[in-house]
Amino acid sequence: MNIDELDLKILAQLSENGRTSSAEMARKLGVNERTVANRVTSLIEQGIISIKGVINRHFFGYEVVADILCQVETAKLEDIAKEISKFPEVSYLAISFGDQDISIQIYSKSPKDVQDFVVNKLARFPGVIRTNTVIVPTVIKDVNDWKPNEIEQIREKVA
């Protein structure tokens, strides 16, 4: 799985707009359209990139973000994490190290919905010992905005 500078330039273009056509990228990068199309296909097949739509949560009224840290029964950690990840409110879930075992981010329509999730779903979930919830009033950088440093550096060269 080696990628070269052209692959990085293509990734930089797609990270800005996943719908950018091969023709447009080829024109900007000064290469053949078929080359770009083949490279994009290869990047997808290698699992280096996936192209999908990112749903705007605000459009559907999900204005409240909450981060929840959970302490759970250690012997059941992975099973609990996998099951909690199935809740539709959960946008992110990871197993963590330290005094908390699971890190969760949820989207909800109101603070009351956050409370209902924590009290009626999470706290009652078998194996959950304790939770710590923080309402996040402003998200500065979303997980969908993250890019590897290599892409940022190449993007600056192309711009």
Just name the CATH architecture of the largest domain: 2-Layer Sandwich
| Number of discrete helical segments | 6
Helix coverage percent: 25-40%
CATH level 3 topology of the largest domain: Alpha-Beta Plaits
Shape: elongated
CATH class designation of the largest domain = Alpha Beta
The number of distinct β-strands equals 4
Ends apart, CA distance between termini: 26 Å
**Largest sheet, strands/sense/barrel:** 4 strands, antiparallel
Q: Quote the beta fraction.
A: 15-25%
Describe what you observe in this structure.
The structure is a single chain. The protein is of the alpha+beta class and 159 residues long. The chain is built from six helices and four strands. The longest helix has 13 residues, at 33-45. The protein is elongated.
Q: What's the structural blueprint in terms of helices and strands?
A:
Elements: H1 5-16, H2 22-29, H3 33-45, E1 64-72, H4 77-84, E2 90-95, E3 102-108, H5 111-122, E4 128-136, H6 149-158
Antiparallel strand pairs: 1-3, 1-4, 2-3
Helix pairs in contact: 1-6, 2-3
Quick tags:
single chain; 159 residues; alpha+beta; Arc Repressor Mutant, subunit A; Alpha-Beta Plaits; 4-stranded antiparallel β-sheet; elongated
Short summary of the structure?
It contains six helices and four strands. With 159 residues, the protein is α+β, with helices and mostly antiparallel strands.
